[in-house]
Amino acid sequence: MAIGRRAGGPASRAAQAPVLVDEESSELTLESFVEERGEQLLRLAYLVTGNHADAEDLFQETLAEVHRKWSRVAASEHPYAYVRRMLNNKFISSRRRKWHGERPTDPVDVVALDESSTDPTREVDGQDAMWRLLEMLPPKMRAVLVLRYFEDLSDAEIADTLGIGVSTVRANASRALAQLRTKGGAR
Prior knowledge:
With 187 residues, this protein is mainly alpha-helical. It has a single domain (10-99, 122-185), classed as Up-down Bundle (Butyryl-CoA Dehydrogenase, subunit A, domain 3). The chain is 65% helix and 0% strand. Helix 3 crosses helix 5 (79-94) and helix 8 (155-162) packs across helix 9. 20% of the residues are buried.
């Protein structure tokens, strides 16, 4: 996926899907919420962290917090948006004042070569370059880009999710894309 264009694929349609409700009590349950939205939240965690292990940790920590605050989450008008905000806030705060320079190799990240394509390394190299560029961005800028281009959220929805102003979202997106262009073109 190219940076700079909005996605309109399955992720955006999944974001609008209804959340399951327990038919006996007509209340939203944590189990039904996780069953319906867990995969989407794990994908979001992967997109902001950049690797499976950190994504699983972030997802698990967020769900533990969701469990503690479930009555507030269930009472909210948009539970998925509430939890998505919790996940992003947890990611941004976890990146403060910690060293994240060491990255062990995850066997899941190893890509098998497809013999039917003309140049299988080009796509892998492009994805790797994109991940490396995204990792250089500050957490808030990275979260803005992920929410905009992978979750397909509007600027107002991103602002609400991250607890910042719409103009701050636009400024972060603009600065992040400028940094990506500068660093990507310097190769």
